[in-house]
Amino acid sequence: MNEKQKLLISDSLQGVLLGCLIGWLCYRSVVTSLLGIMIVPFYIKYKRRMREKSRKQMLWHEFKDAAAMLYSSTAAGGTLEKALRDTCCDMKTSDSSYQVLLPEFERICMHLDQNRSLESVLEDFAVRSEDEDIAYFVRVLTVARKSGGSLSSIIRHTADTMNLRMEINSEIETILAGKRGEWRIMLIVPPGILCYMNMCSSEYMNILYTGLTGRLVMTAALMVYVAALWTGHKILDIHVQEVEKCSFSGLVQYYFVRHYCLFFWQKTGAVGIK
User: Fold this and answer.
1) Which of 105, 161, 163, 200 is placed for a possible disulfide with 88 were both Cys, Cβ 3.0 to 4.6 Å?
2) 119 versus 146: which is more confidently predicted?
3) Inter-axis angle of helices 101-113 and 80-93, nearest 10
């Protein structure tokens, strides 16, 4: 059983327990507890999304360090292939743990040892990363390598952009940390009060579980709770996508325009342009 199957089983069991608890807490019925299992696919999707978000954050933090290592190697006059191999070796010997990026660089080195072209290897890495910004970075590196552009300059700009992004994200997380804590507490309060009332005054709560009116009230309360959960999650889930896209797309456009304009001017005999 691989890691993905273990995570799927764990998420499924958590979803079943959560659905049964919600069904019993809101309706105090075995039937509704079993119907609560229907939330399992949504819970699995949510957990998968959270893990993917965490993986991308780790990937960006690790890629920032990798960009600095690549810059050091290319600035010293090394080729891109050598820089990738040196970066992989540096990651292995580093005190930091590169859980996401080290396997990717090991795969890159393995494919290079198998005489695969560097362009195809980097494209595969961009696809596996599932990150638009890394895909931009790979395209720029590929074009710069084919046309003889300055790899070290491009990598340095990339590292600077990553540092800017992480500073912005850090400021956002600092601002929202308290609000997220308050949101989580407010999410716990309603079911906590409901559990307390059921344990301490179950006869007083019977009216909500026996008549049609009580069940309608509990259904409405559940719908309001789910809406508040979804709305709060959307409000607090803030990213800096526009800053990232502007930074990297701007880098791509700058490089393409500058390189091909210089190439055209040189071919047409223009001099004195650097």
Assistant:
1) 105
2) 119
3) 140
Burial per residue of 121-135, b for 16 or more beta-carbon CB atoms within 10 angstroms, e otherwise:
bbebbbeebebebbb
Place of tokens 């300055």: 150
What whole-number distance in Å separates Cα of residue 125 and Cα of residue 111?
A: 11
| Ranges of H-type helices in the chain | 3-27, 30-35, 40-75, 80-93, 101-113, 118-129, 132-147, 151-200, 202-205, 207-210, 212-236, 241-267
In the numeric block, which tokens belong to residue 207?
């009216």
Q: 86-125, pLDDT tens digit by residue?
A: 888 988 888 777 888 888 889 999 998 888 888 888 888 8
The pTM of this model reads: 0.69
Task: Please report, for residues 47, 67, 149, 164, the alpha-carbon distance to residue 19 in angstroms, rounded to integers and kept in the order given.
Answer: 15, 44, 57, 42
Contact at 8 Å (CB) between 218 and 27?
yes
User: What DSSP assignment string belongs to 77-99?
Assistant: T--HHHHHHHHHHHHHHSSS--T
% of the chain with per-residue pLDDT over 90: 6
Q: Which of 82-91, 160-169, 182-191 has the lowest mean pLDDT?
A: 160-169
Tokens describing residue 45: 């999707």
